[in-house]
Amino acid sequence: MNHLGGLGDDAAKGAGDGSDAIAREIADAVDHLTGLWSMAANGAAMRLSLHQLRALRILQGAPGLNLTGWAERLDIGLPTASRLCDRLEAAGLLERSLHPLRRREVRLSLTQHGGHVLQDVADRRVQALAGALETMARAERLALSRGMRAFLEAQGATLPRPDGPPRP
């Protein structure tokens, strides 16, 4: 496992600033962040697996998605998606409804309870992350934010600005 150190640590170790060395450091940071993320989610009123949370987040972003589309976005088979849907529906987190024009197609959407659960998890994650960021110097937080934006832009994604809507 690599160590994320302060400025100049790479130079002292001779690792340089190559993409591979930085990728290893980021991979370690992501491992730690995943643990923080998971602990925050486990503190929510309703404990869900990361897979279940991801499934609900997909529905939050694409209400009315059918089972096939949901399975494709989750990268799972239809039988697995159907069982996951059954469990989340039984928990009152999602509901199925018939498509108004194609009666053989079932649409999936979050229930109000499902939306509240996702909001609770999101709030807890923000609190946990904010707590970790508070230990960093302001300049380091800003550098991290700039780095994340640059990374997401390089990947074709956008990060919402703290002071407004996401950049185009």
| Radius of gyration from CA coordinates | 20 Å
Ends: how far apart? 37 Å
Query: So what's the overall shape?
Result: elongated
Number of strands: 3
- Percent helix, as a range, is 55-70%
SS-based structural class? Answer: mainly alpha
| H/E series | HHHEHHEEHH
Strand content: 5-15%
Number of domains: 2
Can you tell me about this structure?
There is one protein chain. The protein is mostly helical and 168 residues long. It folds into two domains: 16-44 and 118-154; 50-112, Arc Repressor Mutant, subunit A, CATH 1.10.10.10. The chain is built from seven helices and three strands, in the order αααβααββαα. It has helices at residues 9-13, 19-42, 50-61, 67-74, 78-90, 112-134, 138-154; strands at residues 65-66, 94-98, 106-110. A three-stranded antiparallel sheet has the order 1-3-2. Strand 2 (94-98) and strand 3 (106-110) form a beta hairpin. The longest helix is centred in the first third of the chain and has 24 residues, at 19-42. The protein starts with 8 loop residues before the first helix and ends in a 14-residue tail after the last helix. The model is unreliable at 1-14 and 163-168 (pLDDT under 50).
